[in-house]
Amino acid sequence: MQHTQKTEKVGMIILPSILGSKSSSVTEDPQIQRTRKILLIILGVCFVFSVLSTITVISGTAVPNRMQEAQRGAQIGQCITSVLLYGLGL
């Protein structure tokens, strides 16, 4: 029994170092900047609509019965909650 050693060719790939390459910042990416701007515009529009609806509900006319009074209180609560959430950017 004779064992023969086979030589295999091994190729090496040298990749550039990740540490040496310039890392692009997330804030410098124009696509991310555009997406942020669009989201801020949408958030601003929603905030304005929620403030207007809060003003409309609060300045409503007198309520003739208790059932509508309870609904009005719920509407005011919903409007104030939406103003707070949109104001915080949620």
Molecular structure report:
The chain is mainly alpha-helical and 90 residues long. The chain has helices spanning 30-58, 66-87. The longest helix is centred in the middle third of the chain and has 29 residues, at 30-58. The radius of gyration is 31 Å and the shape is elongated. α1 runs antiparallel to α2. The protein is built from two helices and no strands. It has a domain at 29-87. Helix content is 57%, strand content 0%. Keywords: Membrane, Transmembrane, Transmembrane helix. The chain crosses the membrane at residues 38-58.
Please report the distance between the alpha carbons of the first and last residues.
76 Å
Helix content: 55-70%
Please trace the helix and strand order, writing H or E for each element. Answer: HH
Individual helix count: 2
Compute the number of strand runs: 0
Q: Oligomer, anyone?
A: single chain
- Average pLDDT, all residues: 75
Low-confidence stretches: none
Shape: elongated
Largest beta-sheet details: none
* Portion in strands: under 5%
Rounded to an integer in angstroms, the radius of gyration calculated over CA atoms is: 31 Å
Structural class of the secondary elements?
Answer: mainly alpha
Transmembrane segments: 38-58
Keywords: Membrane, Transmembrane, Transmembrane helix
